[in-house]
Fold:
Amino acid sequence: MVRTKIKDILLGEKVDYQVIVKGWIRSFRNNQFIAINDGSCLDSIQAVISLDTEEQIIKKISNGASLSIKGTVVASLGKGQKVEIKVEDIEILGECSGDEYPLQLKNRPSLEFLREKAHLRFRTNAFGAVFRVRHSLAFAIHQFFHQRGFVYMHTPIITSSDAEGAGEMFRVTSLPFDNPPRNEDNSINFKEDFFGRSTNLTVSGQLEAELAAMALSEVYTFGPTFRAENSNTARHLAEFWMIEPEVAFNTLKENMDLAEDFIKYLIKFALENNRADLEFLATRLEEEEKQKPQNERSEMGLIEKLEFVLNNDFERITYTQAIDILLQSPAYKKKKFQYDVSWGIDMQSEHERYLVEKHFKKPVIVTNYPKSIKAFYMRQDDDCAQGRETVAAMDILAPGIGEIVGGSQREERLDKLEQRMKEMHIPTEEMYWYLDTRRFGTAPHAGFGLGFERMVLFVTGMTNIRDVIPFPRTPKNADF
Ligand code: ATP
Ligand code: MN
Structure:
């Protein structure tokens, strides 16, 4: 007989058939009722053992132990479940005894505590739910692009270009640290390094995705990216996953439409496929919100928020309009912002959150940022006012998160691109491969990057990015 997943038994509502169930014990009551969870769904199944079960076995039935049971699915008389298993055979696969097990569940462990126990936290309801949702979103991402005829492109993880300027990079080297080969001027001789040059972990797959889009028209990447920036915030990881579609012939407007459709698709997919998990996370969030002072609580529950975002258009404003709104805001007038506001600033998270959470109360797409604060590859807007040069950038800001997407229409004009690279001291010779796309059949194109963990944060209502990736990598932390 093969093992049946608990999810299938609970969904089925069928009775009077035999099953084998394997999983981990979540609780044991009255020497008779075992709650077993196998991760296939949020709910545990109740298994009822007979009162004459051997004492030897009873002793081993404890929270966290793994077991295999054989029994009959029967209608349950108890509250909270339609079916349960009447156990005929029980085998403890792995004992979990003693007081050392960190998940004794006497009182609910905090997320901070569980972060230290990341190897075991999968066993809690909250993290089970988070990682099932994370899986669903990853699956939905591929489905969304596949349905639209995009080609999934694997861009390199080790790269020699630092053109993005997206942050500090992690160096990849096989040179010895104590005595690396040196040039005459005492600098390190990377010609002797593994790749014959200096290499790093990638901060983005965009530049390579652009190359592919210039032939396949619609491509996307979905892979790990690395940033050695020392920002120890609840929104930054040193290793995170990013989705980067790149589309030939798309303008900024079409880029925004794609991003908005994409985000809504993911939300809809989770609402349809992870209802129980989301409802559990909504309750968790509600309890967390109750700890906060009244004026800091969010007005909507998690499910309500997701449905609201799904059913409403994102607000679309230019950077210039955003700055005007901030300058007119009571928060600015009452000097509530820590950082000053003026045209040209790189908006701080307090500004972004004001726009999204206080002013519009929905996701906002901000476009046409000042050229000076954006990457070299963004398309320069024509007809800008003197001193107010902008580029065809678009950032999507989400309630509770801040920036979730960063994208742009790319500069397809060789002369403008080269000039901008020179201004920003980006070596054009080294980047010949990138410039070649502009030399040989250039075309307008656009794309964006969605931070996967920020999307998972948004959908699960979790508040710290460390709680939506299995093993977070942050400054001074790479355990497990
Ligand atoms: P931020 O201003 O929040 O640091 P960024 O401007 O550096 O973001 P981009 O370089 O545009 O971000 O990257 C694209 C997307 O990747 C962002 O919109 C965000 O969702 C995500 N992202 C960026 N940096 C990180 C990080 N350190 N950890 C997790 N996600 C990130
Ligand atoms: Mn950043």
About this structure: The chain has two domains: 6-101, 125-168+203-467. The chain has 14 helices and 16 strands. The chain has a mean pLDDT of 95.
